[in-house]
Amino acid sequence: MSTSFYLASKSPRRQELLRQLHYRFAVLAADIPEQPGAQERPDAFARRMALEKARAVQPPQAELPVLGADTDVVLDGRILGKPRDRADALAMLAALSGRRHQVYSAVALVQGAREALSLSVTEVEFGRIDTEAAQRYWDSGEPADKAGAYGIQGLGAQFVKAIHGSYSGVVGLPLYETVQLLQQFHIHPGTP
Prior knowledge:
The chain is α/β, with parallel strands linked by helices. The protein has helices spanning 12-20, 42-56, 86-96, 131-140, 167-171, 175-184, and strands at residues 5-7, 25-27, 66-75, 78-80, 100-111, 114-126, 160-164. The mean pLDDT is 94.
């Protein structure tokens, strides 16, 4: 089976989501700094990051497109990145507790000079998180490398009261938007 495109991400979650739809792709990680500008809005930041990741990869087969993605947890207009340490993760979880926040998940497809971009915004509502539950969650190891200090596809699901939008976007790759972009480049989900 031949490769149809490159994924500019080492994220196992993104890879699994693409495999779920039987896409044939190869992984070429993009290593770029991920820092929002001083006045950059969360939607603009997510779009810029997805595009920069896709542009940063130099595919061995130049004719194949590169898929970049970026997912950001946003509370009160502020982007919550990956926690620096335990205290940072617990502070994020306390801030998210009993509140609604947004997850911005952008995808970009780049093939030479041709570029396409899409953004998914999902609202997530958390129930109350007590201190002991937050500490147990940190001790599990799961939140250490997750934006907003939680993973909805794992133990972090215990805090999610409601979701309005794309579940896969919160995981890290909005599949509806991704499929639409790939179809613009004549790449379709496969069969097992």
